[in-house]
Amino acid sequence: MRRQIKNNVSWVGYLDWELETFHGDDYSIYNGSSQNAYLIEEEKTVLIDTIWTPHRFDFVENLQKEIDLSKIDFIVANHGECDHSGSLTALMEKIPNTPIYCTAQAVKSIEGQYGKRGWDFHVVKTGDSIDIGNGKKLIFIEMRMLHWPDSMATFLTGDNILFSMDAFGQHYAVEELFNDKADPCVLRKEALKYFVNILNPFAALLSKKLQELESMSLPIEMIAPSHGAIWREDPLQIVRQYAEWADAYQENQITIAYDTMWEGTAKIAHGIAEEIQRQSPDTVVKVFNIAKADKNEVMTEVFKSKAIAVGSPTVCNSYLSSVAGWLEFLKQLKFRNKKAAAFGCYGWSGESVKLLQAKLAEAGFTVTESSVRSLWNPTEEDYASIATMVEELLR
């Protein structure tokens, strides 16, 4: 169903209330999501993106109820990922000669996924524009690696809408579409989770892109991302927030993440939490069992933290497999400006703590010299050593 968002611009996307995971099962979703596509009807009729492959036939059926598909003058493909391009195959069967405007990398991405079908691609780069009539035009802005090499944004003059693709989005289904209609607490939480788990690895590039956007002096009055709420009330608030998050963000928080076999490592984890509160009552402490907690939620807390402590018992001269996978994800997210400490129990060889320290350093953390390494179960001496480690984390 077409939903007007401003003047001759409509939302023609899909609210996905039942979606529970994304990127396979790599990203958890608790508040639904949306795939946002947009229709502009000026002298030229333009479709901005499509929706995910599983819904492609519904998308085309619904769209042709709203307009004669042959009246679409061209399509803008801001990103080749299948949650945005997935309906192109079904749509282009109806209107095979319709031009598609996208980056050079997007041509490779789309043809790589769907095959070379002879579509009429028009390659654009930052600063290119196209007139759509009534004194309005579309300006294209490459958003390379935010979060794919092919990504771009499109700015509609006159209405001053930035179709920002994945940047500034959230996995959050908002029936009313707009940020001023969404629950502000959920909106911020989902925007932060999205930034941390998808965009933070490219934070340095994002900072440069935000500076470039500012230098273009675009009079942005609305930001329409490809997932979640459309920013119409103070739309630049999310741009300001991204600038802050991209700048090695941290709060006065320490996150403790661990897994345990026979509860010894768990006892150390909770001992660390208690010691942090004793030494620094104003510091927020979060404790998670890696094997049980949602990794995306935990990483969001890690992002907010100034330091973390990671624990595992020694198993087969290493650490638990649950911790191994979690550490690999931690490395992928490329956190900056954070300290880390390691702890764990052992019964035989006891390598886990040193291996954890090495992995945390590899992930970009400044690792404390002190650690907590307990034989079998923590003793009073082990609990006493927690204080030194916490002092280093807080310093």
Q: Can you describe this structure?
A:
It is a single chain. With 395 residues, the chain is α/β, with parallel strands linked by helices. The protein folds into 2 domains: 3-245, 4-Layer Sandwich (Metallo-beta-lactamase, Chain A); 253-394, Flavodoxin domain (Rossmann fold), CATH 3.40.50.360. 35% of the residues lie in helices and 23% in strands. It contains 12 helices and 22 strands. It has helices spanning 56-66, 82-85, 88-94, 104-114, 184-199, 203-216, 236-245, 264-279, 295-304, 321-332, 352-362, 380-394; strands at 3-6, 9-11, 14-16, 21-22, 27-28, 33-35, 38-41, 45-48, 74-76, 100-102, 121-123, 129-133, 136-142, 152-156, 161-165, 222-225, 253-258, 284-289, 307-311, 339-346, 366-367, 372-375. The strands form 5 sheets. The chain has a 7-stranded mixed sheet. Strands 17, 18, 19, 20, 21 and 22 form a 6-stranded parallel sheet that branches. A 5-stranded mixed sheet has the order 12-13-14-15-16, with no helix packed on it. A hairpin with a 2-residue loop joins β1 (3-6) and β2 (9-11). α1 packs across α3, α5 packs across α9 and α8 packs across α12. The longest helix has 16 residues, at 184-199. The model has no long low-confidence stretch (mean pLDDT 97).
